[in-house]
Model the fold of this input.
Amino acid sequence: MATSVELGATSVTKKALMATTGVVLTAYVVLHLAGNLLYFAGPEALDAYGALLHRNAGVLWSARAVLFASFCIHVVLALDLSMRRQVARPISYGRYERAASSLGARTMLWTGLVLLGFVVYHVLHLTLGLFHPAYAPGRVYSNVSVAFSSVVPTVIYVVSMIALGLHVSHGALAMTQSLGLTLRRERLRALRRLSVALALIVAVGLAAIPITALALALTRGR
Amino acid sequence: MRIALEVWRQRGPGEPGRFVRYESTQASPDMSLLELLDVVNEGLVQKGEEPIAFDSDCREGICGTCGFMVNGLAHGPLQGAATCQVYLRSFRDGDTLFLEPFRAKAFPLIKDLVINRSALDRIIAAGGYVSVNTGNAPEANTSTIRKDRAEEAMDAAACIACGACVAACPNASAALFTGAKITHLGKLPEGEPERARRALRMVQAAAAEAFGHCTFAGECETACPKSIPLQVITQMNHDYLAARLSGEGRAQPRHIEPGTPKRRR
Amino acid sequence: MHLDGKIPGGPLPQKWERRKFEYALVSPANRRKYRVLVVGSGLAGASAAATLGELGYRVECVFFHDSPRRAHSIAAQGGINAAKNYQNDGDSVQRLFQDTVKGGDYRAREGNVYRLAEVSLRIIDHCVAQGVPFAREYGGKLANRSFGGAQVSRTFYARGQTGQQLLLGAYQALLRQVHAGTVRIAPRTEMLDLVVANGKARGIVARDLVTGEIRTFVADAVVLATGGYGNAYYLSTYARNSNATAIWRAHRRGAYLANPCFTQIHPTCIPVSGEHQSKLTLMSESLRNDGRIWVPLRAGDERSPEQIPEAERDYYLERRYPSYGNLSPRDVASRAAKAVCDEGRGVGPTRLGVYLDFADAIRRLGADVIAERYGNLFAMYAEITGEDPYRTPMRIYPAIHYTMGGLWVDYDLMSTIDGLFVLGEANFSDHGANRLGASALMQGLADGYFIAPLAVGSYLARAKPPAIDDAHPAFAEARKDTLARIERLLAARGKRSASSFHRELGKLLWDTCGMSRNRAGLERALTQIPELRERFYRDVLVPGQGESLNRELETAGRVADYFELGELICRDALQREESCGGHFREEYQTPDGEALRDDEHFAYVAAWEWREGESPVLHKEPLVFEAAPPMQRSYK
Done:
């Protein structure tokens, strides 16, 4: 009956790949957050951290390659799967209520698209220094402070971090399921809370930096 | 009480459909929603019009025949209830109810609220069983099953194949249905030998029927009239991925083409 | 015609062994040359189709549901009996046999019943092997509960969904064969006639319920597993679409219909609430394990149940039948409920109800244990009535639930038409005048898994039915008849829906041939039913056409057959001038109101032969009791 189907094509496999890349990306976000929090330790600490990352080009570029690949796979599969929604339900409902989905689950595609845009902007902005009034390679702290001294980039970053939080709140939970990991009901409940906690930490932590930078710039300007 | 119905009417698969309004003053709170449809139909028949086609059989929530969307929710507003178990006391006097068929590519519409769900049968046919012929069985009490495992198997086995999980899923996925059978049989020692093969074949069959993917939003669990837990999907993913990674469930007898020369490895 | 039950000779315990050896065999390579048609996909049909497929026959399974898993076996709640004696409480094949014959009020064949008890052991083995999740003890072994009409615990169960789980086992086995290519299924296809060619059943005429196409199916043997006919009564616990058309059409083509008046009224159903009610809901008999049945002592007591003190309650089953108490058999419990309601002591808004009270059990065992045992039943009750049975007693009332009567079959499950086998509730064979709880599932599976596959094979090996196709005139004729019947219904263009006639017929049957019957009532029914039938054909309105999905047409066809069947039910009840099991004639009762059987004159199977344009002819198959000599059936 169904044996002719290509093995690799099932959505379970695709979701497992999305989950695996999701794990990589989430781990990266957490590490990135940990590093970035050095912002609050002052310019020396942050710049030293920046220098540390650049010490070994091999490691740096390998990490970037893994990240980039994960990111691309994640995005491509997400778009592929969400386009299949149309295929699976070609005629949509006149009325349709979502009774159970969390906000994160409902907005997964949209927060994902926001993050896609944000990542491109973020790399151009703070890694390559485009749209940046005074970018100086290696001077991380000052680059950050200058970048967020105006309102527009700060707002973009904060909105994106809210999107990130929502995305992680559902993603962190769903990826364990896609990988077939939590099999007990009680653990699922705990995991749901953990995902929300992780999402909050990541979003608040990462948004705190541009907000603080803006606040400092505004108070200094006054 | 007064209930208005906005019912999806469509004569056949290729034809256009639309919501048609029916007002009924004969409703009473102790009447089931399907009984209200019976009354509306009785009225339509008397007027010589075609009654609303809908499926139902046991009318006690176990056969899985009935099912449509009520105000955008599969089987209506109550958890753990099929459409036939929805009584009008769940609604308020003067309410309007939108009745619409379950929609999915894999569930082609037949007429009005009637759909074809044989795709679910084909998923079961692909592997949702224990391959044991009549006559093969040993004494029943030779196998010992831990009570909690037996209970978990039963939780999953309660599925009535109504299709509400598919209908409620934003992606029209049949993961809860497929996972339920994989979990039911996989938890039992009798189902263990075929566990990997079953997962591979059923997941592939579901994909072939054009069901969508699972995003773990949880709509299916809430819509399920038997409240089958979401974990069955995790179990399905687990069994499927384990089978894919281990290569189990696909073993073929070793075959060497006659006439193949001996060769160093 | 002499009715030969073809019971094998020898002592009871060896009969089935002996018959299995007598059966002729078809060699594995030849089996695929035979086509077997199975109508119905419930426990009996699905298990038979699956097993015949496993054996290698070419099987076609036709059913009117959209999936084989929806057949009404799915709704059986309580359990399935088997003489495993896992509880070490003195059970044995012999005892299950005795209980069943006694429970059936000595109106069943000993040979059949003994075989059923014997096969029950293997059913449980097979179902466990299929992965049926039966309830387990903490030690991991199978659990049992007790059921009405037995003093041992021999009922296996899967929560309150035993029928569902057993059917899913059979359904999965069936679909496995579909996948293997030995069985083909035809969903949403309803049998409308049987084709008999050269004296043998050779196929059916069926309507594709989606396209309206009239199709013919050709086969070498036909197996009917189409369930009971209780829906003739309109309000029953049957599914909405359960119907008698398949067996009635087979009857009209020459299959005798046996004991149609043996209908079972189940004591624990949710009472009727209103005019528009479409069906009655059964609450499993297992509830009677822990629930106590009572009514107020005083007629017309308006107080709520909690306000009625213990001393003013009448636990009438415990009082009248101290040894079985609340677990008295179904017919006894139903009649007792009717008796107290007739005395004006019924409860609830319609006064047609009795209490089923769990307060004692909850006190004794705790609400958790009760919830574990009956949670889903309690939830179902709460949903339907809006009342919480943990707090206030349930109200229950008897309702039509099962029909022991059905097409007459011999020991090999073959009807009076060669090559037509009848399985499960559709036949009359094993339950006599009353079926014990948890025995229907047992019989359906015994017939389907273990008996029919051998019997059908033997028939094919011996009869070697010649090749035939649907060009044979018998097919053309059956097809023409079917089309004419459909045309007649569509052409009436009257003013009333078929179900309004159905409701009227059902009420008449319930009033005259329900829980108790008498000559005057039955005679009234026999004059009124033909009148009603005439009005039906004049005044029925079936909108739409035959060439598409048309539910009204389906209903009208089924109702049309209920008139003739209803008449036969009453005729059978009238001729049986005794009370036994589900058949209670008011004229024949003991001074204290118990059924009065007449073994001297009525120890026979009443098998009716259809005669076109004449009254049906009664044939009697005498019943002989050697191992279980008839005694007054006392549960006191």
Notes: Chain A has eight helices and no strands. Confidence is low (pLDDT under 50) at residues 1-8 of chain A. Helices of chain A lie at 11-36, 43-54, 57-88, 103-106, 108-127, 140-147, 151-178, 185-221. Chain A touches chain B through 50 residues (CB under 8 Å).
